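Appendix B, record 7
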Amino acid sequence: MAAIRLAALIAATQLITACGSGPAVDTGPLGNGGGGGGLCAQLPAGHVLSYGATWLPNAGDSPATVERVSLEKPHKLQLLASFVMPMTAGAVGLGDSDGWPAAAHLKDWKMARPAIGAKIPASAGRLFTSLIVVLKPQAKEATASAINVFYLEDGTHYQLQTHVRLVLLTGATCTIDWQAKYPG
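Structure tokens (predicted):
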């Protein structure tokens, strides 16, 4: 009887942990979607944002092929393009910049490749790939709750969903309480 109670307790604990530990998707060898948080960016009207702070370290044994990139629950926010760029350990990524390609990173763009169809090599801690998305707000307040990366690795399909909420504002200011104003 004690063994049954222990098994039930373990199962309940696993269920509670799974329900509260992020997106309910199989993220696979590209990671768990990051540490969370968000981005609030102010842009002039008509501008686009290049966002390259999503890292895709491939912990698998085979290259992962990106099949699709999309926004989760977009509201007045358009994904114009997506790219991948190889990075070495210790690199900081591209962050977020006005424009496409971002003027601050023109020398780095020669390494960028379209994300769809890109092969992300197994990294084994040596290198990783940065996902870069180009976003265009369609209104003064544009949001998405996450970025989705659908990919194939070693014959299995996966979905990585980031834990980064996106808020792009034109004609408005990102204030200290923006996360409360724009909940995921």
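Remarks on this record: The chain is about 10% helix and 40% strand. The longest strand covers residues 77-88.
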